[in-house]
Amino acid sequence: MRNVWHPERNEIEVLSVMSALSDPIRVGLVRVLADGHERGWGELRAPVAKSTLSHHLSVLRDAGVTRTRKEGTRCFVELRRDDLDARFPGLLAALLLAADATDIGAGVGLAHDTSATPPTGRCAPTGSPRTR
Fold first, then answer.
1. CB-based contacts of 105, cutoff 8 Å, min separation 6
2. 81: which DSSP letter?
């Protein structure tokens, strides 16, 4: 398993999180991951190109919203709910409530979800955003 850079809990900044959550695709990804299960990138579907989906997953990771784990050539992602709730109490709950009420990110889903769109690509770059 290779290490992937993530900000530590105390390094997660509210402006970075808000910026990462300003895109409907990324909000949709958070909605999918909100069930608490780690997902393989190949399970995720969105109405964008594979490279664009990979970019969205990188933005979420770099902001501290998600955690990525690599195992061989496979990547897995999970929502950092505990870290976000500790840093910014109520933020994630409010986002999910608003997204559900307005159907933001509705085109994003899982492979077995027939309303979701085609498969995702490979893992995004793993370095710190400060060193890329």
1. 24, 25, 26, 27, 28, 29, 30, 31, 99
2. H
Cβ atoms < 10 Å from Cβ of 86:
12
Answer yes or no: is 93 within a domain: yes
Amino acid, res. 103: D
Number of structural domains, the chain? 1
Buried/exposed 14-32: b ≥16 CB within 10 Å, e otherwise:
eebbeebbebbbbbbbbbb
**Domain enclosing residue 48, as ranges:** 9-100
In a domain, 40, yes or no: yes
CATH classification of the domain holding 24: 1.10.10.10
In a domain, residue 73? The reply is yes
The model's pTM: 0.84
- Contact 91/25 with Cβ under 8 angstroms? no
Report whether 67 contacts 29 (CB < 8 A). Answer: no
Q: How does pLDDT run across 45-93, given as a tens digit for each residue?
A: 999 999 999 999 999 999 999 999 999 999 999 999 999 999 999 999 9
Tens digits of residue pLDDT in 1-39: 567 899 999 999 999 999 999 999 999 999 999 999 999
